[in-house]
Amino acid sequence: MSSFKYKDREYEIDADGFLLDFKKWDEQFAEGMAIEAGIEGGLTDAHWRIIHYIHDMLKKTGICPVIYKTCRDNDLGLDDLRKLFPGGCLRRACKLAGVTYREGYIGHSRLLASAHDIEPVSLNKAYNVDVCGFLVEPTDWDEHFAVFKAFEMKIPEGLTKRHWQIIEYLRKMFDSSGKVPPIYETCEANRITIEELEKLFPDGYHRGAVKIAGLNAR
After folding, report:
1. Which residues, other chains included, contact 89 with Cβ-Cβ below 8 Å and sequence gap of 6+?
2. What are 18-34's pLDDT values in tens digits?
3. CA distance 205 to 207
4. Is 138-212 a CATH 1.25.40 domain?
5. 43 pLDDT exceeds 60?
6. pLDDT tens, 129-139?
7. What's the rounded Cα separation, in Å, for the pair 206 and 184?
8. Contact 215, 180 (CB under 8 A)
9. What is the three-state SS of 83-139?
């Protein structure tokens, strides 16, 4: 861990120069990092559009948007993005936005209204899973596991409050009974239809919701 100083602020960064705590980001950090990145002439409106897009997507979904989505949502070609952020496209853009690009996601927040203060997680953290991707020990589960597993499953827009409602219900029921509740009980308890549950967890109840909750119903 090291620090990056710009004007009157000091920021903690990792060995690659990425901001350690996303919540400490501000525009001044981006301005200073732009100088470090060799972006000539300072940040233009076009730069800020991409920086704020990435920052806002992270706050909304917990995921650093991939290149093709960034280009598509902002009507940019890859060459346009390269001109704005030479030497690495999103590696530069994400760094300026206070986001680590590694693996396409970050572990700084589960982005749930009741849990804004969750501590950042090391991207080197490992979880013991079986051949099907289920967590071997349910007690090893944490919110970061859920966020990363949801990303692997390509759940659109990341985990919403509705997703967390189901996940936390499954965890609570397992803690109290040692069993995963059947799907009809989960739907009834959370006042959700099977169609709504399918939209939330397209991979299925057990292979989706249960797996993300760090449980194994087999």
Report:
1. 67, 78, 81, 82
2. 888 888 999 999 999 99
3. 6
4. no
5. yes
6. 998 899 999 99
7. 12
8. yes
9. HHCCCCCHHHHHHHCCCCCHHHECCCCCCCCCCCCCCCCCCCCCCCECCCCCECCHH
Q: Check: pTM over 0.85? Answer yes or no.
A: no
In angstroms, the CA 153 to CA 200 distance is 11
> Residues of CATH 1.10.10 domain(s) within the chain?
138-212
